[in-house]
């Protein structure tokens, strides 16, 4: 077994996550003690239908249990350091359809918890913990994730507002087990990206490439996608989260095959996400303009990744990406002026309008980034992470350069800014659409580890696509 498989063959470290969250809650129960109560996602039926809504486990519950069952709950008694998982009792009506559910004995072997009871015991357990702490404990729960009938009587207070932010912050720094899960999601997704590139050779429509990606994920153990794949050929690549994936790869007017496809896709492995973007040539060779843009974006990404280590200011890394974009676009003649003036006027935002990256974990856009979407500075407004990166965080580095008429035209029409863009040169680049290159990076004390192994060197991508 590889190291990753050896690590994830063990138990998900639910207990240490519970302790970490309890530590972060300490200011709210200082001088006394508390319990944490969380519920799994409920089984829900599709409206007017007897089929279940596709199941997605609630992340806070998974973080403190490692359990993927619906309709379960957990209690962590901070004072006695005891984590109890509650699983639904057998419903004989359901066994014929879904098979026997997990037993308490099996669950105890599978999960890093101290006890497993059935969900009918939640209220009596809450009450006995409250009484053991003499009515002084505080109960922490999430306001919108407590079923009717759950009783917090006997507690000094039921705090429904502190737990979410404590869990969100605790999730930023990953442990070795979580890094292994993220690596596994990345390894599977790298195989799927290669399958998608190979499928592009004979594909006639974006959807065939999407199908190849999803098929390879499922075949390799990632049944869920981190998010809907984005497969965007030609100018569709200029739409950051292009949702359609249904365009023909041949232009209906010119009958020419589009020059490139942007694929932003990642598989999810036991709730942990990969988020990877590649731009690939159709026909095995990048068109000249796409290749020029690809080189700039790759340089943006390489230099930004090189900057990463504990404590780096994320805004500085994002600003470096803009400076490299400006230099590259100046060299191509798309931009005019001095690098400093273009930076000060935020002209590169016309071509690189989104943030450099976001935390990654159980959510693709993971918790704890403290964005400021009200920022008046257009360069930083969409940055999903603000501040210094801690060791143990995992962040995406995903610079891009896009030729989106909707975004660029206001710059071109602005009396103040139009002088910075040479529209004659720009004309040649609309067909590039967009190039984004996205990897998932584990920030360490002295540097970083790149978890993403999907190919991105031009020659390697070209030879796979040929
Ligand atoms: N795939 C979504 C993103 O990169 O943020
Ligand atoms: Mn991303
Ligand atoms: Mn992405």
From TrEMBL:
It comes from the Eukaryota. SUPFAM superfamilies: Creatinase/aminopeptidase, Creatinase/prolidase N-terminal domain. GO terms for biological process: proteolysis. The keyword Hydrolase applies. The keyword Metal-binding applies. Its EC number is 3.4.11.9. Gene3D superfamilies: Creatinase/methionine aminopeptidase superfamily (3.90.230.10), Creatinase/prolidase N-terminal domain (3.40.350.10). Keywords: Aminopeptidase, Hydrolase, Manganese, Metal-binding, Metalloprotease, Protease. GO terms for molecular function: manganese ion binding; metalloaminopeptidase activity. It holds the Pfam family Peptidase_M24. Catalyzes the removal of a penultimate prolyl residue from the N-termini of peptides. This is Probable Xaa-Pro aminopeptidase PEPP. It comes from Aspergillus nanangensis.
């Amino acid at each position: 077994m590889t190291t990753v498989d050896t690590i994830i063959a063990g138990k998900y470290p639910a207990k240490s996550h519970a302790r970490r969250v309890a530590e972060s809650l300490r200011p709210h129960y200082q001088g006394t003690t508390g319990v944490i109560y969380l519920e799994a996602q409920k089984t829900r039926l599709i409206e007017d239908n007897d089929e279940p809504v596709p199941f997605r486990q609630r992340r806070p519950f998974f973080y403190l249990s490692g359990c993927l069952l619906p309709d379960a709950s957990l209690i962590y008694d901070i004072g006695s350091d005891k984590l109890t998982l509650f699983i639904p009792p057998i419903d004989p009506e359901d066994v014929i359809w879904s098979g026997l559910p997990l037993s308490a004995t099996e669950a105890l072997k599978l999960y890093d918890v101290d006890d497993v009871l059935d969900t009918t015991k939640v209220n009596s357990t809450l009450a006995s913990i409250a009484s053991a702490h003499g009515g002084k404990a505080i109960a922490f729960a999430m306001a919108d994730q407590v079923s009717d009938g759950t009783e917090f009587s006997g507690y000094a207070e039921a705090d429904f507002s502190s737990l979410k932010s404590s869990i969100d912050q605790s999730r930023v720094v990953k442990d070795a087990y979580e890094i292994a899960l993220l690596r596994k999601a990345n390894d599977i997704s790298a195989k799927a990206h290669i399958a998608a590139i190979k499928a592009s050779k004979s594909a006639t429509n974006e959807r065939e490439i999407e199908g190849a990606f999803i098929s390879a994920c499922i075949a390799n153990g990632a049944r869920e996608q981190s998010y809907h794949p984005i497969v965007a050929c030609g100018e569709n690549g200029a739409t950051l989260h292009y949702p359609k994936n249904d365009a023909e790869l041949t232009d209906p007017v010119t009958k020419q095959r589009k020059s490139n496809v942007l694929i932003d896709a990642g598989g999810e492995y036991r709730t942990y996400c990969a988020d990877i973007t590649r731009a690939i040539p159709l026909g095995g060779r990048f068109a000249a303009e796409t290749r020029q843009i690809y080189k700039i974006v790759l340089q943006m990404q390489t230099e930004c990744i090189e900057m990463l280590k504990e404590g780096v200011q994320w805004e500085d890394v994002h600003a470096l990406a803009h400076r490299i974009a400006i230099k590259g676009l100046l060299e191509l003649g798309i931009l005019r002026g001095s690098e400093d003036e273009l930076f000060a006027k935020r002209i590169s935002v016309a071509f690189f309008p989104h943030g450099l990256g976001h935390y990654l974990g159980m959510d693709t856009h993971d918790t704890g980034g403290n964005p400021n979407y009200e920022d008046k500075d257009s360069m930083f407004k969409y940055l999903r992470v603000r501040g210094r990166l801690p060791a143990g965080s995992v962040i995406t580095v995903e610079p891009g350069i896009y030729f989106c008429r909707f975004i660029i035209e206001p710059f071109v029409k602005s009396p103040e800014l139009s002088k910075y863009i040479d529209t004659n040169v720009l004309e040649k680049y609309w067909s590039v659409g967009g190039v984004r290159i996205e990897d998932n990076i584990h920030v360490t004390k002295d540097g970083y580890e790149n978890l993403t192994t999907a190919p991105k060197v031009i020659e390697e991508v070209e030879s796979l696509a040929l």
